[in-house]
Amino acid sequence: MKSISLIQFLIEERRAGRINAELSLLIEVVARACKRIAVATNKGALGGVLGEAGTGNIQGEAQKKLDVISNEILLEANAWGGQLAACASEEMEDPQPIPDMYPKGNHLLLFDPLDGSSNIDVNISVGTIFSILRCPDGVTEPKAEHFLQPGTTQLGAGYVVYGPATVLVLTFGHGTHEFTLDREVGSFILSRRDIRIPEETGEFAINMSNQRHWEAPMQRYIGELLAGKDGPRGRDFNMRWVASMVADVHRIITRGGVFFYPLDAKIKSKGGKLRLMYEANPMAMIIEQAGGAATTGRERIMGIQPSGLHQRVPVFLGSKKEVEVATHYHVEADAAV
Ligand code: AHG
């Protein structure tokens, strides 16, 4: 079978009228930047890229060297092409404008440059997550407020997993597709078109160490999964937790499953652990486009009107039926109060 490169796929999407030339260029630039991040992550200790950067980000989290390097690679790659009006990143408090010397485009790019960075030093998969929005008409110098658009308005979303293989997963709202990096050729090649997540699953992902801090409906839901065949669900469930959302989501779009980062007493005041604009929304779009569901446990993630660039939300996503059961338990518990 003839292989289809990412560039060829993008040209076909343009011809089908699903994306324009600027969006196509934007994906090419992001993909090229991610290849550079893959090279940096693959070097590991030999590249001198492991360990702490000695700085903190806006969220008060210690930055790893590779967080900083990946952020710089994405910013630098996206500055000059003319496809963007501004970028926003987990690693920066405010959006980064496009320098005046370069032409500006009509798109806004948000990214988590290196998700799961606690896993870098132990050689476990990490990734990049990105979301693409339209810059509002008439805005030439986008500020944070111009990024605050619900996930339903995303023009595209994707992630790259830097694992045993480097894999790009992409959606423009017409299905979710996977591309695998051919390292010899240097190109991403289409490896799965129109991915479908099974509606039912027997596998869940959650950080069980937070169990005692969860809300009652989450305790009930996971309690029932753990009870297995002898419990109300009448079957055994398996558990996996990589602690890199990209890797957990990639497993789900490959063989099904559900992922939860629910609200718990420790993080309640922050609204959740994961960031809405550059983690939850792009993953929600990818999952929904593959036939799965994504909620906060109470509402559809992509329906949320964001109130801040770095806003956090609880995340339930994956196989539709399990997301619905867990969400139903929360909604039901709220209604009973
Ligand atoms: P970060 O962007 O800081 O690397 O966050 C990682 C996220 C996500 O990838 C993962 O699912 C979760 O945090 C892991 O959280 P725990 O440390 O609580 O397991």
UniProtKB/TrEMBL annotation:
Predominant subcellular localization, coarse grouping: cytoplasm
Free-text remark on how the cofactor is bound: Binds 2 magnesium ions per subunit.
Necessary cofactors: Mg(2+)
GO aspect biological process, one term: fructose 1,6-bisphosphate metabolic process
Catalytic activity: beta-D-fructose 1,6-bisphosphate + H2O = beta-D-fructose 6-phosphate + phosphate
Gene3D superfamilies reported for this sequence: 3.40.190.80, Fructose-1,6-Bisphosphatase, subunit A, domain 1
Pfam families: FBPase, FBPase_C
Domain of life, source organism: Bacteria
InterPro entries according to UniProt: FBPase_C_dom (IPR044015), FBPase_class-1 (IPR000146), FBPase_N (IPR033391), FBPtase (IPR028343)
Binding site for Mg(2+) 1: E90, D112, L114
Binding site for substrate: D115, G116, S117, S118, N207, K273
GO cellular component, one term: cytosol
Record's keyword terms, sorted: Carbohydrate metabolism, Cytoplasm, Hydrolase, Magnesium, Metal-binding
Domain (Fructose-1-6-bisphosphatase class 1 C-terminal) ranges: 197-330
Entry's EC annotation: 3.1.3.11
Subcellular location: Cytoplasm
Keyword Cell division appears in the UniProt entry: no
Record's keyword annotation contains Transferase: no
Pathway assigned to this chain's UniProt record: Carbohydrate biosynthesis
Subunit structure: Homotetramer.
HAMAP family on file: FBPase_class1 (MF_01855)
Similarity field: Belongs to the FBPase class 1 family.
Family annotation (PANTHER family): FRUCTOSE-1,6-BISPHOSPHATASE-RELATED, SEDOHEPTULOSE-1,7-BISPHOSPHATASE, CHLOROPLASTIC
Record protein name field: Fructose-1,6-bisphosphatase class 1
Organism for this UniProt entry: Dyella solisilvae
